[in-house]
Amino acid sequence: MVVQHADPAHEHGDHHATQSWVKKYLLSTDHKIICFQYMFTGMTLAIVAGFFSYVFRMQMAFPGMNVPGWGLVTPSDYNMLVTNHGAIMIFWVAMPVLIAAFGNYLIPLMIGADDMVFPKINRLSYQIFLLSVVVLFASFFVDGGGFGGAWTMYPPLMAKAEYNLTGAGSSVFLLAVALEFVAFLLGGINFVTTAMNARAPGMKLYDIPIVVWMIVIASILFMASVGPLIAGAVMMLFDQQLGTAFFDPNRGGDPILWQHLFWFFGHPEVYVVLLPAIGIVAEIITVFSRKKLFAYKTVLNTAIGTGILSFTVWAHHQFVAGIDPRMANIFTVTTLIISIPIAEMMFVYVATLYGGSITLSTPMLWALGFIGTFLIGGVTGIFLGASGADIYLHDTYFVLAHFHYTFFPIAIIGTYAGLTFWFPKMFGKEMNETLGKIHFWGTFISFNCIFIPLFFTGMLGDHRRIFDYTNFPELTTPMLENLRAFATLSLIVMLGFQLVFVYNFVTSLLWGKKAEINPWRANTLEWTTASPPPHGNWPVLPTVYRGPYEYSVPGRKDDFWPQDAKG
Amino acid sequence: MSAAADRPIATGRSATGMPTGRLAVWWIIASEIVIFGGLLGSYVMHRLAHDAFAEQAAHTNTWIGAFNTFVLLTSSLFAVQAHKASDEGDGKKAARLLYYTMAGGVIFLVVKAFEWTTEIQAGYTIASNTFWSFYYTAAGIHAAHVIAGVIIMGIVAQTAKKNLELQRVELIGLYWHFVDVVWIFLFPLLYIAK
Amino acid sequence: MIENWVPALSSYAKDIDFVFDVIFWIVIAFWFLLVEAVFLYLIVRFKKRDGVPAQYITGEIKSEKNWVHYPHLAVLACDVVILFLAIRVWYDVKQHVPPIDETVRIVAQQWAWSFVHAGADGRLDTTDDIKTVDDLHLQVGKTYAFKLESRDVLHSFSVPVFRLKQDAIPGRVVTGWVKPIATGEHDIQCAEICGIGHALMPARVLIETPEAHAAWIASKGVSGAGE
Ligand code: HEA
Ligand code: HEA
Ligand code: CUA
Ligand SMILES: [Cu+2]
Fold this sequence. Notes:
- The complex is a heterotrimer.
- Chain A is mostly helical.
- In chain A, about 65% of the residues lie in helices and about 0% in strands.
- The longest helix of chain A has about 35 residues, at about 75-110.
- The termini of chain B are far apart.
- Chain B has helices at about 10, 20-50, 50-55, 60-85, 90-120, 130-160, 165-190.
- In chain B, about 80% of the residues lie in helices and about 0% in strands.
- Chain B is elongated.
- By secondary structure, chain C is α+β, with helices and mostly antiparallel strands.
- Chain C contains three helices and ten strands.
- Chain C has helices spanning about 15-45, 60-95, 210-220, and strands at about 100-110, 110-115, 130-135, 135-140, 145-150, 155-160, 165-170, 175-180, 185-190, 205-210.
- Chain C has a five-stranded mixed sheet, with no helix packed on it. Chain C has a five-stranded mixed sheet with strand order 4-10-9-6-7.
- In chain C, a hairpin with a 2-residue loop joins strand 1 (about 100-110) and strand 2.
- The longest helix of chain C has about 35 residues, at about 60-95.
- Chains in contact: A-B, A-C.
- Chains A and B meet through helix 7, helix 8 and helix 9 of A and helix 1, helix 2 and helix 6 of B.
- The structure holds heme-A (2 copies), dinuclear copper ion and copper (II) ion.
- One heme-A sits at the interface of chains A and C.
């Protein structure tokens, strides 16, 4: 990572310039370095989880084949791969990259602070996160192998070794997830307190860039929803290791209780990752359409509204799980209502484009790609929210396609958007636009080719977590087999295109053109300091005079108006 | 480099007017509240589902529970006075009162240890049935918080003695009151409701 | 739409497909296409052109807010329609139970289904019950109640052609109903992950004419008793 030293004039500069590599990159308390730690850990795990998806999709499409890079996929392999693919993508890719990495980088820089308010807690949170990664990997290698009971960890399967056959694996896996939660609870302290208290002089609540708001709201959502699941995890661990019976129906426990604890967290969690991505998109579309964000306050309110509503919908994952059928009606109502704030959010973004002067640079393509594809994920959620239809669709590939059409835009497209947008600031180099566009179109098209077919396999009855459909005569039709094969091949194409990104990333990092301070002519504060920013971010911390989206203000010669510019 | 030197300027700011340290402690307390909330919520759901709970609960020792409640409440009182002392800038006094608070925590733990041994000798272990599972899990997690509180308080007292970081006295006090309140919920749920 | 690929063989299958179709027309065919169309149009229409500066629109003025306000009222209206249909079907399938002709017990375990049929006397838990493994015999046109049980972990009794799905929970008996409306032989799936054999518990439902069904019962005779 090319992080320049602060100019000696700067208060912090001198003693940091003399630090050893370990001190500088591994033990640093600098929020920018911690961002890179989260970012690269997250990307590495994205490659791991992506590889897992390649392996199990190959098995699914060509049952019994000897998958290159893995070999034969046994049923237990398959379950373990699917489970960990899901868990890793959500807990170890989406959250660290979108919340921790971007949160760490952007919050201090966008509110004009020199660092997080608790740098040591910040460092501790990454170290615990790293520990959770190690523990997770350990769970693959303990005897019995990795846990394969789905990322939802439903008991009794999760609770009893005699059922899941991975006694050690499931406990270690649970421990890893719990550690990850702790890491993010600690991280949240900084995100919230920094954004609340460390703002630059003059920065009022409505002068805070949307992405900062979104990451703060997401952190609060996470904190408020994860508690019961942490308690549940302890109970589960005791069931596994101490012979308690919290979730054991034969001894007075209740397996459904876990589902409530899990989804009470699980549904807010999906908005925890959604909001930061939405925030990143807001920053990008305003810059590249040279427009003020349409109805800033509305965006904020819809985000808060979504957050509050998200606590009331969890049982829509349990319609046919044996809950009281009357309860399902309540959750159908709340679930459909949540479409309203999110719809409004989408409308606002589309409206922002109106009357703009749009440049389709790589970050803009990713941002627009996010909106275009997330809509599919969103609207298909309505099919599932409608209890009547969900009786059929539950746990089919329709659900799967639904949430990949939300998660992929968020975790991958959103990340690429943010990465290409802030790359010049983060590393002081420019990325190659042509390669960027090739990577975008390649990923974007192949992504749709993977998951559109899966909506159909779902409608035709493919159910989830099946390593070999040939046991089901009605699921062995040529049509279904072709759809599955097509999705798998598209995945291979997509993974191929990721190499373009990796190549572009590395070459730009090493030999890229030197980036100026404000290459996109943007307003927010991070673009007012050197690229990359020195330790301490600014020689003199900025003062704020206006909101973050004052683009194309009539009567000014520049079409942008930095937040810290006096006149 | 000394602790103060590398503390960022951001740490000193207070755009909301509320001390950042207090905000942080409130964040921790809030996340703890939802954790215990989830646990107690699960307990109550089980309780309502099984009447068997009631007669199991009958075997808990209400008097010991009551005594411990009394001990914790008094210790909280010392914490309050410690806060007052720290506001008056009297670090020595604050430290002394914190030691009293810690003593309260220790007594609580000793009594609890005694109580658990008798329960276990009587044959009620964590695996006996769901009531006792909840009994040991909830009280156990709470006890862990008491231990953590006592340790942190010791550290805070050390610095306070030297009249340093006096604001920490208030913060640890906040946390201690929270631990106390959790017990106020546990006591009736585990001991009284029979 | 679904019935084009998966036959609708239970009395309520068509209703469930109907909900699906209505949602499709409202949310995909109308809303989704509309939003994408506007979205793409704006991108093309307002592409950067030299000398044409972007407009300054805050979106805080009432008249501008209405651009998103009215559509979002329309969304609310659509939600209400969808809710009405969804809950109505849900009520028929999961909440209210029609007069029952016969009851079958369905027992899930790692990794097989076993079925207890009422047998000749049409009543469960009598000596002439017929117990089978991995194939369920139903008579077309009869309304069946099922008692769903599990021996170990969660499973989910899923019959795509019936549009029926219900999780089985150890320690509980989950009840439901289904009325097959056409003969045939079809897949039964387990739709809840239940361990390494989750993919290995397919079963078959055989929907028979009254004659064929009677013949099958006769063939089992008293032999099937007790098991
Ligand atoms: C970030 C991820 C994310 C997001 C944003 C969403 C968003 C939504 N999800 Fe999704 N969902 C998941 C991730 C996500 N989901 C995951 C991971 C699962 C599976 C977990 C598992 O089982 O493993 C899941 C499963 C899931 C289920 C359970 C399915 C089942 O297992 O049977 C349901 C059911 O209600 C549901 C509904 C919804 C709804 C209503 C929304 C809404 O928020 C969508 C709102 C958005 C829109 C509606 C689009 C914009 C609006 C318009 C264009 C206007 C037109 C709209 C109308 C007229 C309504 N989701
Ligand atoms: C963030 C969430 C996320 C993401 C991004 C993905 C991505 C993908 N998922 Fe995932 N998936 C889940 C979350 C996610 N998935 C969950 C929660 C489940 C349920 C698990 C369960 O049932 O228990 C699931 C299950 C699941 C299944 C169901 C298996 C089964 O039930 O039998 C399938 C099948 O096709 C699948 C396929 C894919 C594919 C092909 C991708 C591809 O898009 C992957 C493409 C690969 C990459 C994108 C990696 C390349 C990355 C780099 C080159 C580095 C740069 C990285 C960044 C920019 C971050 N997934
Ligand atoms: Cu039984 Cu899956
Ligand atoms: Cu949900």
